[in-house]
Amino acid sequence: MMKIPSERLMYFISLVIIALLLSATFYLEKYDGFIPCPLCILQRITFGILGVLFFVGMLLPNIKLARLLISILAGLFSLFGIYLSGRQVWLQHLPADPNADCGVSLQYLIKALPFDQAIARIMQGTAECSQTGWEFLHLSLADWSLLCFIVFFGVCLLQLSRALRQ
């Protein structure tokens, strides 16, 4: 039977995976000209927050309340990431709208609109959000993002169960 890695090692492995994912997306943006849509940017931010939580979880002392808090927060952000990437995957599988506009940047939406309207507009998606663009093993970036968020949610559930048994 395979032994499950320690809590700190699980957080470290997850942190390394997030660093690699974010590095790959920044590489695609800078050197391949891949322009991220607002949903992509929100997914990046969510990965970054998860990375910070995993880093903190890796450094935390073995205190039950702290472990519970980190695993619950990371689980919630993983669920948010699943929602964001799932929404983008869904948009990518809709028939293309010939009248769709390219939309505006995330920064403009946040500056120009009230927060709730900006989020609603981002969730509607734009023509950019429905394009798959780059693929690896026949999966788009949004597909990979969804898979990673699901895996991270599984890691959070495992860490939560460990913290509850402590």
Can you tell me about this structure?
The chain is mainly alpha-helical. It is 73% helix and 2% strand. The chain has one domain: Bromodomain-like (Up-down Bundle). The chain is built from seven helices and two strands, in the order H-H-H-H-H-H-E-E-H. A hairpin with a 2-residue loop joins strand 1 (135-136) and strand 2 (139-140). The longest helix has 29 residues, at 64-92. The relative contact order is 0.17. The mean pLDDT is 83.
Highest CATH level, the class: Mainly Alpha
Largest sheet, described in full?
2 strands, antiparallel
Secondary-structure element order, N to C:
HHHHHHEEH
Any low-confidence stretches, pLDDT <50, length ≥5?
none
Briefly note the structural class of the backbone.
Answer: mainly alpha
Secondary structure topology:
Elements: H1 7-31, H2 38-59, H3 64-92, H4 106-112, H5 115-124, H6 127-130, E1 135-136, E2 139-140, H7 141-165
Antiparallel strand pairs: 1-2
Helix pairs in contact: 1-2, 1-7, 2-3, 3-7, 4-5
Descriptive key words:
two-stranded antiparallel sheet, 73% helix, mainly alpha, 2% strand
In brief:
By secondary structure, the protein is mostly helical. It has helices at residues 7-31, 38-59, 64-92, 106-112, 115-124, 127-130, 141-165; strands spanning 135-136, 139-140. The longest helix is centred in the middle third of the chain and has 29 residues, at 64-92.
